[in-house]
Specification:
alpha+beta, binds 1-deoxymannojirimycin, 8-stranded mixed β-sheet
Length: 932
């Protein structure tokens, strides 16, 4: 079985290592598909049901791909709400995320091999012809080297791999003469100038036409890149070298990997998130398996699988040990500091780490894969999708979800490894949620906010490259696919590269291997992994027994019970007080604060301020706990501020032909009916006259009983509200007058009152940026009668509409369904609607800081200076021994630790420790600002 099947390359010892190649070693399997095994947990799924789901995936793909081709191509991506192409430069810039767009028909290229996997061979042939005819790689546009590599180079190579496979079969692609490979080579050469650094780490961006150096390039001044950006090249570059014989690509990618390996933090064996491409210094020293690092680890293991080079496996295993020791806190995966790996760097996780269980399957470490996957699935069940980031107690941290495929990927690999039909049910839920919440008439729209169900006008190319592949393969039987998927490896973008490359053009494969590898102890190789053939027949309930204790981890269990074993061991019986548990009214907590040197100052305005003076702590350990507590409190506080700042609302278009599928992100008002208090308002929309709503309306008959549309500007929001209310409107939507503004690019805000009493305003008021507003205005132009729902969370679409709607045409047949749907009074109470910000049920007994005004009001900026100030002259008399032990462990192998590493003879002055801590605290604050 190949890697693609989840069974290969997990580091098993194979009989003849020297001559081993992935192809030759297909008999030496670590994980064997156990399709015949069913656990008692989930009933087996019938062949018919699997086929039905597979067909549903095909229909969904057609909906996404068809709309892209019809309305967006040759643009890079589809904008599914406005049903047009996203052309860079023609839309407001979204920052880094736009660096994937190179005016090279990104979605088409990223979809090529998906077409073959989904058995759409004719469409594939047609798509390849379009790529060859239309795509230009020589555009004057600055693109991300990483994204261009994984999506475009990977897409071309995946397309080439399957084109030659089809050609060999003798029916399709008979005309094909390696044209995609030639394009890939052309693109490869365009990316090479990015590697012109002394370190060999690539610049993060390159101009496709002008490269790096030329003044016209408009890039080349960056100093930092992310670890994944520099470490996710080897599969595509090695494949390019081996397909073409041009060794330079593989050499460059290997050199970048060698450098990263050299720079790993030697005592923890972890890597940071961001590195300086010139000096090799870690810029961000936090480390996890998600954003910024993820595919670096993935590519080490997969490079071993594809290229058969032991050094990659050795590096992977070394890192994997470190990940399992420090980052893995089952079922969580939490970022830590590379220099202080026992310390968590965050109290939240990002969605990208959802790929990790899949990688663990490939490695052969099934138990933690099942655990993490289960935890993620519960988060999904709670929010319908995995939010971009969520806290350790499973609240939303970043509410977007751009239809990422990582969880589907892990689900597929876990199913392949366990054969447990539970994972088919998981896949079914993913399909249902996509259709229910993300499907719009013109494709699938990313979720702007999983809490409100609002959409973003965005359908990323990876949705077609990855999501449909993994979902289709999950339900497919061998005979459903026209080639043997086991002969290929998936890149991080799910492009397929043939395993036979391992034996082709291998000339450079050993050239750059440093002597270090041969010197390293063989025990570093973890050659063992569970064999499911043995494991599952012996215990068919294995996977379920691992999931069982986690069944309620998100909803019912007490997440704060998940405290690192090391922490409890270190501090004896009583674990340190966690910021999220703190209550300013609890005398025990106040006692602990005192011990930690933290004092509580009651401010005049009712808030409290926490200040730490390490010198006042009872011991050095307590001082350290106090610092950590403060650090947690800072993070918690900023998270709460974020949550309080932006309570977005939703405008859901419910009339024909939208039927509730288009959900727009809206800003609330500080006056009028509060939609978060279990209310929603439904009505037809009408433009007010005058449109700015700044005087008495001249068309009260038109807005009476309706939701009035008003343009922003020229008077206060509250004045507009009063004018439309007086005309009999039941709600109002203010549309931004700033043309082109969009919630994709501008932060939402609340409409403030007019400084006077606004209690007289009873109707709900929402704000839409111009782009979202024009979706409603366009709808009026086209359909005249447009009905919307104003709420704090989109209401479910009517399932009957869903059924009728798929896969048949969406344009007709819907009038009567519109009546069935959402037959609510104009203003209704929602029963028990979930409010995601609230801590889990179990927290209600002992409220988290989110429930206490005091803790929420802690001002981060006030904490840090106070503590540093008081540390300058601090000493920890009599407490050196404990601190010494703590620090010694960390500092012995620390590359950049000061010579005075700890107390006593090896004393590290407390201010140096604290300076170090403050550096971490600053790093937290920086991380908070960073986007994924
Ligand atoms: C994809 O482009 C790739 O999987 C990449 O490695 C990171 N994640 C995105 C999709 O989420």
């Amino acid at each position: 079985m190949s890697e693609a099947g989840g069974g290969r390359g997990c580091g098993c010892r194979v009989p003849q290592r020297a001559s081993w190649s992935p192809v030759a070693a297909t008999a030496a399997l670590c994980l064997v598909l156990a399709t015949s095994v069913c656990t008692a947990g989930a009933a087996p799924m019938s062949r018919e049901e699997k086929q039905k789901l597979g067909n549903q995936v095909l229909e969904m793909f057609d909906h996404a791909y068809g709309n892209y081709m019809e309305h967006a191509y040759p643009a890079d991506e589809l904008m599914p709400l406005t049903c047009r192409g996203r052309v860079r430069g023609q839309e407001p810039s979204r920052g880094d995320v736009d660096d994937a767009l190179g005016k090279f028909s990104l979605t088409l290229i990223d979809s090529l091999d998906t077409l073959v996997v989904l058995n759409k061979t004719k469409e594939f042939e047609d798509a390849v012809r379009k790529v060859l005819r239309d795509v230009n790689l020589d555009n004057d546009v600055v693109v991300s080297v990483f994204e261009t590599n994984i999506r475009v180079l990977g897409g071309l190579l995946g397309g080439h791999s399957l084109a030659i496979m089809l050609k060999e079969k003798g029916e399709y692609m008979q005309w094909y003469n390696d044209e995609l490979l030639q394009m890939a080579k052309q693109l490869g050469y365009k990316l090479l100038p990015a590697f012109n650094t002394t370190s060999g780490l690539p610049y993060p961006r390159i101009n496709l036409k002008f490269g790096i150096r030329k003044p016209e390039a408009r890039t080349g001044t960056e100093t930092d890149t992310c670890t994944a950006c520099a470490g996710t090249l080897i599969l595509e570059f090695a494949a390019l070298s081996r397909f073409t014989g041009a060794t330079i690509f593989e050499e460059y990618a290997r050199k970048a990997l060698d450098f990263l390996w050299e720079k790993r933090q030697r005592s923890s064996n972890l890597v940071g998130v961001t590195i300086n491409i010139h000096t090799g210094d870690w810029v961000r020293k936090d480390s996890g398996v998600g954003a910024g690092i993820d595919s670096y680890y993935e590519y080490l293991l997969k490079a071993y699988v594809l290229l058969g080079d032991d050094s990659f496996l050795e590096r992977f295993n070394t890192h994997y040990d470190a990940i399992m020791r420090y980052i893995s806190q089952p079922p969580l995966l939490l970022d830590v500091h590379i220099h202080k790996p026992m310390l968590n760097a965050r109290t939240w996780m990002d969605a990208l780490l959802a790929f990790f269980p899949g990688l663990q399957v490939l490695k052969g470490d099934i138990r933690p894969a099942i655990e993490t996957h289960e935890m993620l699935y519960q988060v999904i069940k709670k929010h319908n999708f995995l939010p971009e980031a969520f806290t350790t107690d499973f609240r939303v941290h970043w509410a977007q979800h751009p239809l990422r495929p990582e969880f589907a990927e892990s689900t597929y690999f876990l199913y392949k490894a366990t054969g447990d039909p539970y994972y088919l049910e998981v896949g079914k839920t993913l399909i249902e949620n996509l259709n229910k919440y993300a499907r719009v008439p013109c494709g699938f729209a990313a979720m702007k906010d999983v809490r409100t169900g609002s959409h973003e006008d965005r359908m990323d190319s990876f949705f077609l490259a990855e999501m449909f592949k993994y979902l289709y393969l999950l339900f497919a039987d061998k005979e459903d696919i026209i080639f043997d998927i086991e002969d290929y490896i998936f890149t991080t973008e799910a492009h397929l590269l043939p395993l036979w490359l391992s034996t082709t053009n291998r000339s450079i494969s050993k050239k750059n291997t440093t002597s270090e590898y041969t010197e390293l102890d063989d025990s570093n190789f973890d050659w063992t992994c569970p064999n499911t053939q043995i494991l599952f027949p012996n215990d068919p309930l294995y996977a379920q027994s691992i999931r069982e204790p986690l069944k309620n981890v998100v909803d019912k269990s007490c997440p704060r019970g998940i405290i690192r074993v090391e922490e409890s061991l270190r501090s004896g019986a009583q674990p340190p007080l966690r910021a999220r548990d703190f209550m300013a009214t609890n005398p025990e907590h106040l006692e602990i604060l005192k011990k930690m040197g933290v004092s509580l100052i009651h401010l005049k305005d009712g808030r409290v301020q926490l200040v730490q003076h390490a010198i006042q702590a009872a011991s050095s350990i307590d001082a350290e706990d106090g610092l950590r507590f403060m650090q947690e409190m800072i993070e918690l506080s900023s998270q709460q501020q974020k949550e309080q700042q932006l309570p977005p609302r939703a405008v859901q278009i419910i009339s024909h032909p939208f039927f509730g599928r288009v959900v727009l992100t809206a800003g609330p008002a500080q006056f009028g009916l509060d939609l978060s208090k279990h209310k929603e308002t439904r009505g037809f929309v009408a433009s007010s006259k005058p449109y700015n709503g700044c005087s008495e309306l001249t068309n009260p008959e038109a807005v009476m009983g309706k939701i009035a549309l008003i343009q922003r500007g020229q008077c206060m929001f509250a004045e507009k509200a009063r004018n439309i209310q007086n005309a009999g409107a039941i709600g109002g939507i203010v549309i931004d007058d700033n043309e082109g503004s969009s919630s994709d690019t501008a932060p939402l805000f609340q409409m403030a009152g007019d400084g006077k009493d606004t209690d007289d305003i009873k109707i709900p008021m929402l704000f839409l940026f111009s782009k979202e507003g024009s979706i409603i205005l366009d709808a009026i132009r086209e359909h005249e009668e447009v009905e919307v729902l104003l709420s704090d969370k989109a209401r479910d679409r009517d399932p009957e509409v869903e059924n009728e709607d798929q896969p048949s045409s969406e344009n007709d047949s819907q009038n009567q369904s519109a009546e069935q749907m959402l037959s609510l009074p104009q203003t209704v109470d929602l029963v028990d609607q979930e409010t995601p910000e609230k801590p889990p049920e179990s927290d209600s007994e002992s409220p988290s800081p989110a429930d206490t005004e005091e803790a929420a009001s802690v001002a981060p900026s006030e904490q840090v200076p106070s503590s540093t100030e008081s540390h300058e002259t601090a000493s920890l008399d009599g407490e050196c021994a404990d601190l010494d032990n703590q620090l010694q462990e960390q500092s012995e192998t620390e590359e950049d630790s000061s010579p005075n590493a700890s107390c006593g003879t090896k004393a590290q002055p407390i201010d140096s420790i604290l300076a170090d801590w403050n550096e971490d605290i600053e790093a937290f604050e920086m991380m908070e600002k960073d986007e994924l």
